[in-house]
Amino acid sequence: LTYPSVVAAVRDERWTEHVQSVLGRAGHRRGGAREAVVELLASQECALTVLEMEAALRRRRRRIGRASVYRVLELLADYGLVARIDLGDGVTRYEPSRPDGEHHHHLLCARCQRLVPFSDTALERAIAGLSARQGFNVREHEVVLHGACERCAEV
Ligand SMILES: [Zn+2]
Ligand SMILES: [Zn+2]
Predict the structure, then answer these.
(1) Which residues in the chain show pLDDT less than 50?
(2) 141 C-alpha to center of ligand 2: Å?
(3) Phi-psi region for residue 113, left (φ > 0), alpha (ψ -120 to 50) or beta?
(4) Strand ranges inside 2-91, DSSP E
């Protein structure tokens, strides 16, 4: 599994700009917590839990309380700027929701809880073909494959 990190970096910068312009137009003021959370999400390859965000912000020496992180995430979710990912393990994860529809899907290891992002054009084509055949206008889709990751499968 490979992830186009160079392309993703460009897209993430676009996501950050998109976030600032949507929230700015809606009259929301910039703030330290918002900047830090947006910057953090933009730098990640995949979804994060609030606990992971707290730890990452601490590593970046940003003192932002859990309540502030939640407030920023609520705001971003209200404007459709982040996707809430529910993988059925009782923990909500968040990741950037890109305006161009660029997205990825997830592999979740049931043993170590590792989350691995993947994208696959054949899968996207299959979903588009299926929605056309069913005459169903698919607005969005989520795909989560549950199993054991490479490391856990070897044991
Ligand atoms: Zn992800
Ligand atoms: Zn997809």
Answers:
(1) 1-4
(2) 6
(3) left
(4) 82-86
